[in-house]
Design brief:
The complex is a heterodimer of chains A (about 280) and B (about 300). Chain A has about 280 residues and is an all-alpha fold. Chain A is built from 13 helices and no strands. With about 300 residues, chain B is mainly alpha-helical. Chain B has 15 helices and no strands. In chain B, α4 (about 75-80) packs across α15 (about 280-310) and α9 (about 175-200) packs antiparallel against α12. Classes of the chains: A mainly alpha (about 280), B mainly alpha (about 300).
């Protein structure tokens, strides 16, 4: 008995020391991870002439780089396009995926299994392998250089249907049965009973679609060549190198491009983390 | 509220239970719900997938309407004989080899450490995860500047501790490892979150029981944590391999596939052939081959998961 207690105490002491070393190592890595972002901010606050010194100290801190970016580039237009496209994609995905998931989760009909597997197959197709035929399709439709060209292929996301279906399957059926007995149709049940309960799933799908759409590069790069409607990543890719050695300006454009997403992250940190953990592990 | 009104208006359920109602059996209402998704899905995913497959058997050109002449398997044969195809495939695989082990091991290590730290977890989440949500273009701008010769932070910092830095993006040998470092910094947060979630599933009692038996921290990690996280690791590994195979942005933005095509990925090869050389039939064939590779990786994952489930 006594020796057991001594062992436990000794192990606990070792564990405490171990935990402290863990914290130290982790803090060091976390700080290292923050260096690139800190360096970008530091550089953007310097006058261009100072940026080749490669020191953290700033002699004449200035916001000049930011104001030059806002005035000289079309970055505000790109913000607008990115916002419109990402919102269209997120709203569209939430709507069509939740409707489809409702049918798959709550309605009995012939061919349900077939539809289910048909949608499942979509998860296996990486969007990148479709760029060539999709480009020809949008070219033929005359939709190149429109918001639709970017947004439409982002809306039918098979994985979103699964996230919703999984969530709906977990909701108790009593509530909607009561509503059905009261004579509510399927759409009413969907709108008034299921969707209000599905807020976490809506948040996860909306945030992931929004961020994914906002950050997408390859597809928008192909279909948007008009500088006025470019998204942030495409716009930044085209001005890349345009500033030459005006490094403060370059870093300011990077930071301006990052700000909306940093805001999204800080606002929805919880949903994002839970979304990844939940869907990733169950997927 | 509205349901309440409906109750008063219709006190007796006049409709039969949902599954047996006639409309439901015919499936019409269900297809009403499915239609918006299915129409877009057919129009913009399945349709293009089939169109791409068809196109891969034709000499289709970007600048000519229609499919043009039938090519049979010529596009596939050409791809499999093309040194450019194989080198871009190898670059993609090399990138995957360089990024996958660190992205799994470091994410695991950081999550393991974070799991033992009681306070300030938000700070670690912020530090490791914040880069992940940035657009690739932002990441590229920052890292190109860090990798700049002579005045770049990477070279200057290494110089201070007496290490001669390589030319990073400018060297055929170092360009790919440089892109890998950037990618590890950028995407580690995703795996970190997956591992953190996996660690929370490990019952605390197991550690306490192990401590009772005199197992030290290292033994606890080796005998409890690592085996318990086997499934998470399978998931992380496969998602990571697939994500790495799909690399495009970093190369396109930071090296344009150079120097001397040393970092051209398979997707950039598709992009170059299809949209620079206008050979979309050939590009579609390369896309199909790439799709088969991704499919094979997914199949391996599926088998691994099945085996793990049988073991549990």
């Amino acid at each position: 008995m006594a020796t057991g207690a001594v062992t436990v105490e000794r192990v606990q002491k070792r564990v405490r020391l171990f935990n402290r070393i863990c914290a130290g190592v982790l803090i060091a890595f976390a700080l290292l991870w923050l260096v690139p972002l800190a360096w970008a901010v530091d550089t953007a606050l310097k006058p261009n002439a100072e940026t080749t010194n490669t020191t953290w100290a700033i002699q004449d801190p200035t916001l000049g780089a930011f104001s030059r970016q806002l005035q000289e580039t079309a970055i505000l237009n790109w913000f607008g396009s990115s916002l419109i496209i990402a919102t269209m994609s997120a709203a569209g995905t939430v709507l069509v995926a939740s409707l489809a998931a409702f049918a798959l989760s709550r309605m009995r009909f012939r061919g349900r299994t077939v539809v289910f597997w048909f949608v499942l197959a979509g998860i296996m197709i990486p969007g990148q392998v479709l760029i060539v035929p999709q480009f020809r399709e949008f070219d033929a439709l005359g939709l190149l250089n429109t918001y639709w060209a970017v947004s439409l292929p982002q809306i039918p996301t098979a994985i979103a249907v699964f996230i919703f279906k999984q969530f709906f399957d977990g909701l108790p059926r009593d509530l909607e049965e009561a509503a059905r007995i009261d004579g509510a149709g399927y759409f009413r049940v969907y709108r008034r009973v299921i969707m209000p309960l599905a807020r976490p799933a809506v948040a996860a799908v909306a945030i992931f679609t929004f961020v994914g759409s906002w950050n997408d590069l390859l597809w928008p790069l192909l279909v948007l060549s008009n500088p006025d409607i470019m998204t942030i990543p495409v716009g930044l890719a085209t001005v890349q190198g345009a500033f030459g050695i005006r490094y403060a300006d370059t870093m300011a454009s990077a930071i301006l491009g990052a700000i909306p997403l940093v805001a999204v992250f800080l606002l929805f940190q919880r949903n994002i983390v839970e979304g990844i953990a939940g869907t990733g592990l169950k997927g | 509220m509205s349901t309440g009104t409906a109750t008063r208006a219709r006190p007796v359920p006049p409709v039969p239970a949902p599954p047996s109602s006639r409309g439901a059996r015919s499936g019409l209402p269900a297809f009403g719900f499915l239609a918006p998704f299915l129409i877009l899905y057919l129009a913009f995913i399945i349709g293009p997938a089939l169109y791409g497959l068809v196109m891969s058997f034709f000499n289709t050109s970007l600048v000519k309407p229609g499919l043009s002449g039938f090519a049979g398997l010529d596009n596939y044969a050409e791809a499999l004989r093309s040194p450019d195809f194989w080198s871009s495939l190898w670059h993609t695989v090399w990138f995957t080899i360089l990024t996958t082990p660190p992205l799994i091991l470091l994410a695991f290590l950081f999550a393991l450490l974070a799991d033992r730290v009681a306070r300030g977890r938000w700070f670690f989440r912020l530090a490791f995860f914040a880069p992940f949500i940035l657009p690739s273009a932002v990441v590229a701008l920052i890292w190109i500047f860090i990798y700049t010769p002579v005045i770049g932070l990477a070279e200057v910092t290494l110089g201070k501790i007496g290490i001669t830095a390589p030319v990073w993006l400018g060297s055929e040998t170092w360009a790919m490892p440089s892109l890998a470092i950037t990618t590890i910094w950028w995407t580690l947060g995703f795996n970190f979150i997956l591992y953190l979630a996996g660690l929370q599933e490990v019952p605390r009692e197991l550690y306490e029981a192990a401590a009772m038996d005199g197992a030290g921290p290292w033994q606890q990690v080796r005998r409890i944590t690592i085996p318990m996280l086997a499934r998470t690791t399978t998931l992380v590994a496969v998602l990571q391999v697939i994500a790495s195979l799909k690399v495009f942005d970093q190369m396109y933005l930071m090296t344009q596939g150079g120097p001397n095509f040393a970092t051209r990925s398979i997707l950039q090869y598709v992009y170059d052939e299809g949209f620079t050389n206008f050979r979309v039939g050939y590009a579609a064939a390369v896309s199909t081959l790439f799709f088969l590779i991704v499919l094979a990786v997914s199949a391996v994952w599926f088998t691994l998961v099945r085996r793990q489930e049988r073991e549990v």
